[in-house]
């Protein structure tokens, strides 16, 4: 999908794909005003009629369960600053979808040390989303 610095109009503003039982909406997020607003993101999610909305622009990891749907912002793998904040921690996510269950693994550089914290967020069409921190040893960043 098109980001705020993409000059070409060849890419769509948003795209909807289906994986397993989930309809997933993709949108960079600069079109959502105010940026990162849960209410504005929920309106986009309803307009796209998707179970999971993957969005960004703020460069900060966030995950929300709202109205039996799921919204995720993977953050910024580089930790690049934005006009919103220069305090951005590098993060990225991996999403594992199996039928009606999605598990998102969140990798985030911890403050002060070159270590990566790994969290796990689960979402099921049948149940509520929940976030539980893994009790694993932090992985050293390279």
Write a brief structural summary.
8% of the residues lie in helices and 42% in strands.
Question: How would you characterize this protein structure?
Answer:
There is one protein chain. With 142 residues, the chain is mainly beta. Helix content is 8%, strand content 42%. The chain has a single domain (14-140), classed as Purple Acid Phosphatase, chain A, domain 2 (4-Layer Sandwich), CATH 3.60.21. It has one helix at 38-48; strands at 14-19, 22-27, 52-54, 61-66, 69-74, 91-98, 101-109, 115-124, 130-133, 139-140. It has a five-stranded mixed β-sheet with strand order 1-2-3-5-4, covered by helices on one side. Strands 6, 7, 8, 9 and 10 form a five-stranded antiparallel β-sheet that branches. It holds the Pfam family Metallophos_2. Residues 1-99 form the Calcineurin-like phosphoesterase domain.
The CATH superfamily is identified as: Metallo-dependent phosphatases
Number of helices: 1
For this structure, the quaternary state is single chain
Write down the domain tally.
1
CATH architecture label: 4-Layer Sandwich
**Main pleated-sheet profile:** 5 strands, mixed
User: What general form does the structure show?
Assistant: globular
Run of helices and strands: EEHEEEEEEEE
**How many E-type strands?**
10
